[in-house]
Amino acid sequence: MRKLIKRGLTGFLFLVVILVIYSIWDNNRITLAEQDIMIKNLPDEFEGFKILQITDLQEKEFGRHQQRLISAINDIEYDAIVFTGDLLNSSESKNYKPTYTLIEGIQNKKHALFVPGNADPKNYHSNPEQPFEKNEFVKGIEKRNVKLLESIYTIKRGASNLYFVDFELSIQKTQKQIEAINGRSIPENASYEAYLNDYLDHQKQLLEEISTLDKMKSSDVLVALNHYPVVDARIDYLLSNREFVFRNYDLIMAGHYHGGQIRLPFIGALFVPEAWYEPNSFFPPQDRVKGLWEYKQTKQYVSTGLGSSDFISILKFRLFNPPEINVLTLKKEDK
Hints:
By secondary structure, the protein is an alpha/beta fold. Helix content is 27%, strand content 20%.
């Protein structure tokens, strides 16, 4: 009996060692996920347009000076590259080097966009005693030729347009918000007067920029970027609430979930950090955790990303869930 128990323990420890070795290897490799996005009435000018998505780096490094990740990216032919948030580990982090080193090594940044995640700092300083300006992290990203997407970014080919938009701004009713800003009164000589004036002027400018969408042609392509996936319940809420406008998005791209981070064979993700699922974010619908899905005629693609979250500190690793970068190819849907 003792021999049997000893053999069982030895076998168990052997499996644990194998799992640890495998997980270390699996957490440090880079996979490429490719997906065709079928779009009705896609203009010929954007047939085969490729978008490379990088998300949830979480300060992770892939080789010395990010060389393995940089090489993987530079080996890909793409038309636009988008970073969908959580490049840092926390909004208080000053460890910008993994992100900056990565961006510096990327060759094709002709159309390079960034939207922040919950682990990244706010786009602008929030201290009214300071000038209204972008924070240090965003300044560094833009200095390296990646644009902060706050409203709308247009790629024009022939008579057709492809719009990248910040999802959260795009759902606002622009004219109503602009009127609210115009009607806002600020006490003179208030300590925050200059800051608030600059902030409101900036918000008005963004709303005016994104109001371009109100005049979209049916042949134009609309791609929204967001860190958080837009779950079915939120889409229903936006569609039913007159305070918002849910547009005819051809595609929404997001990250945040890490594919569940811990995945089990035949089961999938055990948990995703999703406020719309609370109080129970455990055992989420597996077809809403990663990859492509469609709801209410809106396609959405969610990447599992590259790093890992310390939402549960002892579980800051990925299990059966290798890091990934993603290439989405726009194709015309046959009628």
